[in-house]
């Protein structure tokens, strides 16, 4: 599947800090998240060219809470990717959780503008993910750090998007409570794949809750039982997540490779 190959390719470029030898003009996407900031670059066809990321908490529940810190990180990521590519990047797209409005919605664009990227587009996060997955019919659930966003597409048309303030942060809070450790220690424990099997019984109820939330969101809008379901966002890295979520959701769901990179790739494609 071309979409999955592209996600693997972006991961490889970021790991090796290299750029694909593809001609410009280039598209830039910046994903300002609760747990990290990712900058991805593609060519005009949406093929990944380069990218970089930083763990940071500059956003909370979809809102930019550290404007200066966010701007500095985007500046750094931009400079790093420009050096890798050997070109200057001057414009980019951003994304927001569905339902973000007013000044909160403007904040992400202002951050990238402050970092030297003219904001040309702002999209809903799960809509960006759908673009990266090249889906025009299906349900995309984006479970990031602070939010769970849903986008439903029917024959290329967006039927609805919705968002709830539940995500990986809640998984970490449950781990912190269960193991009597700090939130930061819980975040590290959660990202250590060698511990995933051990922590699964502790976090299974949170995954179940996420599935129930998404089920309710969908039920309020119609019958989507025939739509394929894709789960993206860093929380979907958890081993066993696909199975636990699918069990509570009542049907099979798909987690693409490197789920944390799907939305950033899609944002770049919208640029
Ligand atoms: P949001 O979209 O909610 O603002 P975000 O953009 O930061 O947040 P993502 O980057 O998709 O969201 O995912 C971040 C979440 O994924 C964090 O909670 C982080 O702890 C979790 N995460 C990242 N890597 C892993 C991993 N390997 N295993 C488990 N969880 C992970």
Would you mind describing this structure in some detail?
The protein has a five-stranded mixed β-sheet, with helices on both faces. A four-stranded mixed β-sheet has the order 10-9-8-11, with helices on both faces. The mean pLDDT is 93. 44% of the residues lie in helices and 23% in strands. It has helices at 2-16, 67-85, 102-114, 125-132, 168-179, 183-191, 196-219, 241-249, 262-270; strands spanning 27-32, 36-42, 48-55, 59-60, 63-64, 91-96, 118-124, 138-143, 148-154, 157-164, 229-232. α5 (168-179) crosses α6, α5 (168-179) packs across α7 (196-219) and α7 (196-219) runs parallel beside α8. It has two domains: 2-130 and 260-270, Nucleotidyltransferase, domain 5; 135-255, 2-Layer Sandwich (Nucleotidyltransferase, domain 5). It contains nine helices and eleven strands. The radius of gyration is 18 Å and the shape is globular. The longest helix has 24 residues, at 196-219. The chain has 271 residues and is α/β, with parallel strands linked by helices.
What's the topology here?
Blueprint: H1 2-16, E1 27-32, E2 36-42, E3 48-55, E4 59-60, E5 63-64, H2 67-85, E6 91-96, H3 102-114, E7 118-124, H4 125-132, E8 138-143, E9 148-154, E10 157-164, H5 168-179, H6 183-191, H7 196-219, E11 229-232, H8 241-249, H9 262-270
Parallel strand pairs: 1-6, 6-7, 8-11
Antiparallel strand pairs: 1-2, 2-3, 4-5, 8-9, 9-10
Helix pairs in contact: 2-3, 4-9, 5-6, 5-7, 7-8
Adenosine-5'-triphosphate is lined by residues 31, 33-36, 59, 62, 125, 144-147, 167-169, 187, 190-191, 233-235, 237-238, 260.
